[in-house]
Design brief:
Elements: E1 7-11, E2 17-19, H1 22-27, E3 36-40, E4 47-51, H2 52-62, H3 70-79, E5 84-86, E6 93-95, H4 98-103, E7 109-115, E8 118-123, H5 124-131, H6 138-146
Antiparallel strand pairs: 1-7, 2-6, 3-4, 3-5, 4-8, 7-8
Length: 157
């Protein structure tokens, strides 16, 4: 698994093209040949950019679901709705398809935000709102999610 690091602000042109910031492009160098999958996020009004290798791992997990269970079939349909295979062009630009621009309410400025092994693509205003902390107490969230994890011998969570 490739860990991606950083948050980057960029401008989007009228056609939905955005120039990847050099530090992000450098981290994604190994994935440039294989391409990417761009999809709607399940929980947030943003897009998710999967390097193809990471998408293949996700699809292997999803492919284990029994499609004769209605919930599984409904999940697969909704999870893959609007999925697009995309490339970074020779100038380092990503073209965001119009339907995904609309889903993400993307206007003129976007934020690329690392999310471990994928990149979230947010409209800048929506991103700022999501991290403002107004609707979630991050300290409580961190304790709930990570509070009982300590699988290292160094005592650091």
């Amino acid at each position: 698994m490739n860990t991606i690091v950083g948050t980057y602000e960029c401008k989007v042109d009228a056609k939905g093209r955005v120039l990847l910031p050099a530090p992000l492009k450098k981290q994604l160098t190994l994935s440039l040949q294989s391409g990417f999958v761009l999809k709607r996020s399940v929980f947030q009004p943003c897009l998710e950019l999967y390097p193809m290798e990471e998408w293949d791992v996700m699809m292997a997990k999803i492919n284990k679901l029994n499609r004769f269970v209605k919930k599984n079939n409904d999940f697969i349909r909704r999870f893959t709705a609007g999925v697009k295979v995309v490339d970074i062009d020779s100038l380092g630009r990503l073209l965001i398809p119009r339907d995904l621009v609309s889903f993400g309410s993307i206007s003129k400025e976007v934020v690329f935000s690392s999310a471990v092994n994928i990149v979230e693509i947010w409209d800048k205003d929506l991103y700022e709102k999501s991290i403002s902390g107004e609707d979630v107490d991050f300290a409580d969230l961190a304790e709930d999610v990570m509070g009982n994890i300590n699988d290292d011998d160094n005592g650091i969570s």
